[in-house]
Every structure is written in structure tokens, then in C-alpha cells.
Amino acid sequence: METDVLVVGAGPTGLTLGIDLARRGVDALVVERGERLFPGSRGKGLQPRTLELFDDLGVLDAIRAAGGSYPAAMIWRDGERVGERRMSDPAEASEGAPYAEPWMVPQWRTQEILLARLEELGGKVAFGRHLTGLTFRARGVRAEFATGEPVHARHLVAADGGRSTVRRALGIGMTGETVDPGPLLVADVRLTGLDRGHWHMFPPHGETGGFLSLCPLAGTEEFQMVAQFPAGTRADLSAEGIRELVAARSHLSPGDVTEVRWASEFRPRAALADRFREGPVFLAGDAAHIHSPAGGQGLNTSVQDAWNLGWKLGAVLRDGAPAALLDTYEEERRPVAADVLGLSTGVHRGEVRRGEATRQLGVGYRTSSLSRETRPDPGPVRAGDRAPDGTVGGVRLFDAFRGPHWTLLALGVPAPGVPVRVVRGPAHAAYGTGLFLVRPDGYVGWAGETAADGLAQYLALVGLA
């Protein structure tokens, strides 16, 4: 079996990449070791920048319908409510940033929505495909599986999680640290005795051990339970063990936990792959970087890896862009992942508040070789920056950007003839004056006063000349 791109792993990263490749007409196959999608709520927080990504992919309405906003935390002690606090600094939506705060959707539901979109575009996931070996070939890589025929692909993307089989097969190491020496238990439970209008927090008290939190999962009847344990201990993942834990650390009784739908144990760690590429193989998501869950950064950073890589693979495989364009994936995403690792570790340790940084709207690529700022006196938005929303000439910019294409904004200057979508209008408060070539992933790639400032050369660089 042959394909242009083999994506290993059908988590949020792999599904996002599958969608982006499918809408570009790239022949791709997503394979998943499990027999079905991941069943737990684990990565439940979607940051504003990810909501913009999902707007671009055409799934935002479904995501909004499936979830809800984060509730305030309610602190308990000895069965009494002792205080309420917000989980993150407040933010107001604006014309340039219409999605201001995180949105809660259980990870299993996010994946269902992404899979439905992939299938709508003609893509598919092959479940039950356990990768057992990789061999580099002259024009790509051969992947072998425990069952089923081998697959030959021009490129392979490892989106197979923190214990990535692909990364280990390639011998790529990970450098990092233990964020917390004690394990965490995370589970999806149904229970009675708590309102669903708060995220219920039970701090460590007496001899009960670590903290316990019970967060109502928007759009479901479940709560996500998180419990901390001392170093050197193990969590009991059985239903009975979880019931006893809830009773020991809260005022609830074991019988108040009516169902345990999923449970897992992990040790918070922060680690970064030594490199994100080996020949025709790329690492993305948790295969490339592992985060503490604090601050809701892992899933969000992971799907943005896919958003960055997808259009570049499409440009090389379908549009004739130079193969060197693929080198910019690691150049751009590895520094972002390194920064996010520090951020999520800081949130986990209580050193950083959830707020502007965790919303990820400030992530950008100004120092990338793919960012060309040619104006001598740039305005507020420069090459490499996220392209804000807004209205220009009666057109909403996010509507113009949506889809697998480039967009040229001509603001207060004449628009040249170019083979991309063009939006014309006067100078804009968020952008200033000039020409702004917006990449398919919503970042400004090139900015200039006139097309003579290198626009044609840049279009050739990305396969659009």
C-alpha cells in the first residue's frame, strides 16, 4: 500500500493533520494502534488560539455546541465551602481576538468531532494497526504493522503520544525533568452530592494525602477527577479504589460515586525531543514534547504542530514548493514547544497564573526564516505574528482566511496581481498600512509596502509563483 503521508496516531494531533491534508487533496492515511478513539477526558481545555484553528478547519460550531466555559473553583474543607476563585485571569473578546477564554470539551468528544470532519472530507482512520518497524527507502519510508500489509509513504508523521513507538524506533532522545515526583490519577466519574456549577477543589488536609479535584465536564454527565499521590506510591485505578479515595479526601461517601467510566495514572513530566525530524519522518504533538497538564497547554500545542506542518507538506507535495520548506517545521515549532514546557511547568508549580500566556494568542514566528518583514517602519502586526481578526471592506478576516489557502491583505495601498485570495481596504487599526501575506495557518508570512519589496520571491519560496 502506498500513500503520500502516513500519520501514526489518531489523537487530536493526528486527526487535525489528517483533516488539513485531506482538504488539500494530499493522499494520506491515519493509523491508530487502538481499536477505537481514546475514551477519556484528559485534554479538556481548548485555548483561544486553538478555537481559531478549529474555526479554520470548519469544526468550531460543533466544538462550541459540545462544551462550555470553565466554572469557578469552589474550595472545600471539612465538608464546608470556604472560598471561591477563578481558574484563570479574565479576558474580554475583541474584534481582533473573538475567542477570549478557554473552552471546555472532553478530549474524547473533541476527537469524535475531528474524526467526523476527517471522514466528511474523504479521509479515514485505520484502527488496530500496531506499528512494529520502520525502514527508510529511496523515496520515503516503509512502515510495518503487527497485522495488515506494510505501507510505503513519502513522509511519515509520528503523532503517537509521549511513549511514541516511532520516536523510539528512530533513536531520538527526549531531554526533560520530572515536574512532580508523585503520580496523578485522572478519571471520568459520575457522582451525586456536588453541584455542576463549580470546579470542586479539596486541598490536602490531615492524613488524607494529596489534593482532590472534581470538575464537571461540560456537555456530559461526568466529572473529571484528578488526585495527587505522594512520591513512591501507586494509585488504585479500580472503581472501588476510586470510591474510597473520594470518600477519604472529601465529604462524599463511596456510594456517591455511581460510575467510573475511565481512569489512568501518570507522573507529570516536561520533556522535549532532541529533534523533530529524521529524514522523511516528523514528530508532532506528545511524540515531540510532553507537558504537565496544568494550564491546558499540551493538546493545544500539539494540534498547532499539525496546523503548521500540514500546509507545508501540502505545498511541497502538491504545489511544487521547494523541499527545504519542510525544514521550517522544526525551526518554528521546537522553540514554541520549549517555551510552552516552561510555561506549563510554572503553572503546575503555582509560579504562573493561567492567563494571557496560556491562551496562546501571542505565539508567533518573528525570527523564522519563513517570516519576511520588509517595511522600514513596521506597524503593530509584523511578519511572523498571528494575523488578527477584523473587518476590512465589509469582509470578516477570519472568514477570508478560513480554508487551505493564502490571503493577501492590501490595506491602504494598491493590491498587486497575485495567485492568492485578496482582501482590499483602507488602513486598519490592528494592522496599519501595507501588504500582508497571511499563511494558511493564520500567521503573516511576508509584509511590505509594495509588491516590489520581494513579494514574488516569497511566493516562489512557498510554491505559489
Question: Can you give a write-up of this model?
Answer:
By secondary structure, this protein is α+β, with helices and mostly antiparallel strands. 25% of the residues lie in helices and 28% in strands. It has helices at residues 12-23, 48-57, 60-66, 107-120, 165-170, 239-249, 298-318, 327-348, 397-401, 455-461, and strands at 2-8, 28-32, 45-46, 68-69, 72-77, 80-85, 103-104, 125-127, 131-137, 140-145, 151-158, 174-178, 184-191, 198-202, 212-216, 223-228, 257-266, 269-273, 277-278, 281-283, 289-290, 372-373, 391-392, 395-396, 407-411, 421-425, 434-438, 444-448. The longest helix is centred in the C-terminal third of the chain and has 22 residues, at 327-348. It starts with a strand and ends with a helix. The model has no long low-confidence stretch (mean pLDDT 94).
**Mass-distribution shape:** globular
CATH topology of the largest domain: FAD/NAD(P)-binding domain
Mind describing the biggest β-sheet? 8 strands, mixed
Reported CATH architecture of the largest domain: 3-Layer(bba) Sandwich
* Helix percent band: 10-25%
* Number of E strands: 28
Separation, N- and C-terminal Cα atoms: 33 Å
Residue runs with pLDDT of under 50 for 5 or more positions: none
Total domain count: 3
**Count of helical stretches:** 10
CATH class of the largest domain: Alpha Beta
- CATH homologous superfamily grouping of the largest domain: FAD/NAD(P)-binding domain
Would you tell me the structural class of the helices and strands? alpha+beta
Strand content: 25-35%
Task: Determine the mean pLDDT.
Answer: 94
Question: Compute the gyration radius: what is it?
Answer: 23 Å
